[in-house]
Model the fold of this input.
Amino acid sequence: MRGLILRTAMKLFLDEGFENVTVRRIAERIEYSPAAIYLYYKDKDEILYAIHEIGFEKLYKQQQTILSIKNPWKRLKKHGSIYINFALENHEYYDLMFIMRGPAKKIKEKEEWEIGLRSFEFLKGNIKECINAGYLKRVNLDVAAFAFWSLTHGIASLVIRERCIMFPE
Done:
């Protein structure tokens, strides 16, 4: 039942916009009562957050594939490629994870946002190794990690939205 709710909600959020979808609308689509959905999720924010967590788990699993790369600089470059490929191959999750505003409310309510922070900490660890190996000099770890994430996020967002047509592939 949870999977059915999440798949249906994801499609509705993407097609109609998070703010335009209600729990009642999700229930109508799956031909259940809203009360049935409330047995699993307290509101649509919690539904979106659950989708968000699935997306971050997928991203983290893909990030783990670079652990065998010994050179930290090559690993960091591959890390960026994996992030961009994740966005391109999972653009629905990517939109819900990074573009829509909905889950931020739920994230702020939690003292810790383990699933999202885990991916970011993985990136920070990679950048720290690049700093220690001398590939990046005189940089603040947090600033460098945020800058790298911003760069890859920007590229992914531009490509997904087809805003890079002026550049050859």
Remarks:
- Residues 44-63 form the longest helix (20 residues).
- The CA atoms of residues 18 and 101 lie 8 Å apart.
